Amino acid sequence: MPTQDRTPPLVSLVAGGVAGGVEAIATYPFEFAKTRVQLRTQSGASSSKNPFLVVTQVVRNEGVRALYKAKDGVRFLSFDAIKKAFADPETGAMSPLRNLLAGMCTGVVASTFAVTPTERIKTALIDDARNAKRFRSSFHAVRLIYQEYGFMGMYHGYAGTTLKQAGATAFRMGTYNILKDFEKSRKIEQNTFTNFANGAVAGTVTTYATQPADTLKTRSQGAKGASTIDAFRSILADDGIKGFWRGTIMRLGRTVFSGGILFTVYEQVAALLQP
Description:
Distance between the termini: 17 Å
Strand content: under 5%
Order of helices and strands: HHHHHHHHH
Number of helices: 9
Largest sheet: none
Number of strands: 0
Shape: globular
């Protein structure tokens, strides 16, 4: 989130990129475990719901590198630009609804230009490592997917990803800004603690609101790919309605910390770079 209303685009891009990198390194194992649980298991195979057990098994069987075998600059840059377009033309203020709408538009932009292709590769690699083990690296996965499905193979799961990104960015950015504006109106000091707490609350709200879209996205983006409708049917067939919230606790383990880390680092780096 911008430390001021007029955060320069380059500052948003650099600060968002640094924040995303720190957050990814610190919390990605939870994302890996969540994705493994959401993917369809082989017939009769059980899947642990304990993220630490999933991570431990992967490290034991596949090594630490497997956890990281697999954008935030784009998201923050887009949000800062779109936020200005949604601001009140006279006062420049952002109401809660305007914050949410700006976040939704940012999610669509991020999904189209960055998130869907990268999530497709990440999910395909995680899925492939369980069974076929065809992909030797990210670049090899891209090459095979392109050969077998064409360019649009990189956009399997676009609908689910866009729903998730639009919702997640709206709730995460919107909640954070609403909390931040409320605190400023009450003259509550903005520091590392408040940044982290606001980010953690935003992460919690985001997880419960967007988990169905996240599960749908993951099923669509497995190694073989699937249409959104096929993914929807497979989730219902396997677990019923509750299956759409599969992996919630694991994702919550990441989003609570990632929200706090992401916004705290962003605010600190933006403050350092602000001219």
